[in-house]
Design brief:
7-stranded mixed sheet; Efm5/EEF1AKMT1; EFMT1 methyltransferase; globular; protein-lysine N-methyltransferase activity; Rossmann fold; DNA_methylase_N6_adenine_CS; SAM-dependent_MTases_sf; alpha/beta
Length: about 210
């Protein structure tokens, strides 16, 4: 029989697959239904292959509020690999600040001109209209807990910021964070929507509301 070589799914696997597709359709249906907020955290799902782990709603709100205060009235905020903070900032529909998102994941290009494709391997490969030292605060969450990733992301941060830096990364990166960005650990402990094995912390180089 020619069909013998075609792999067959077990009834259990088939049922699980059908359930997955049904859930996906329901999610897509919710997204297109009236009242869907394109900026809500989780509206674009995590891609673990890109080392994406979204903050909890409370953490994203706290970091967004901190950024608004730090930036000041009419301030400019850059979110580097921190899309859930960007989404929270956009949810505020603030007229007193502007924000852009630098992100490797092109799904975030749905946010239009505020989206800037960013690959930390090329930290200064940025659009010409992204002028040096043009942001009042830069919030960054490097995707990997490695010194190489932090060092290269730090180049981008230092290029963009007028001075203020809010870094979110693992507690194990404290020494490297101080070395590359001159930031100190805060008392505030960021949480993620899914529990991570690594302890996460926030770091700043200014007097913040996170202590």
């Amino acid at each position: 029989d020619d069909d013998d070589d075609i792999p067959q799914l077990s009834s259990h696997a088939l049922a699980a697959l059908q359930e997955f597709y049904l859930e996906q359709q329901q999610r897509e249906g919710m997204k297109t239904s009236q009242g869907f907020n394109q900026y809500s955290v989780g509206s674009i799902e995590e891609d673990w292959q890109l080392s994406q782990f979204w903050y909890s709603d409370e953490t994203a709100s706290c970091l967004a509020n901190e950024a608004v205060v730090a930036a000041g009235k009419g301030g400019r905020i850059a979110c580097v690999s921190a899309p859930s903070v960007y989404q929270k900032l956009k949810e505020q529909d603030g007229k007193d600040f502007s924000v852009c998102i630098l992100e490797y994941d092109r799904r975030f290009s749905v946010y239009g001109e505020e989206f800037i494709f960013y690959d930390y391997h090329h930290p200064l490969n940025l659009p010409e209209n992204l002028l040096p030292h043009s942001f009042d605060i830069v919030i960054a969450d490097p995707p990997y807990l490695s010194e190489e990733c932090l060092q290269k992301t730090a180049e981008t941060i230092k290029y963009l910021t007028k001075g203020k830096i809010l870094l979110c990364t693992g507690a194990i990166m404290e020494e490297q964070a101080a070395k590359h960005l001159g930031v100190k650990i805060c008392k505030f402990i960021p949480k993620h929507s899914r529990n991570l094995a690594n302890e996460f912390r926030c770091y700043v180089n200014y007097a913040s509301g996170l202590d």
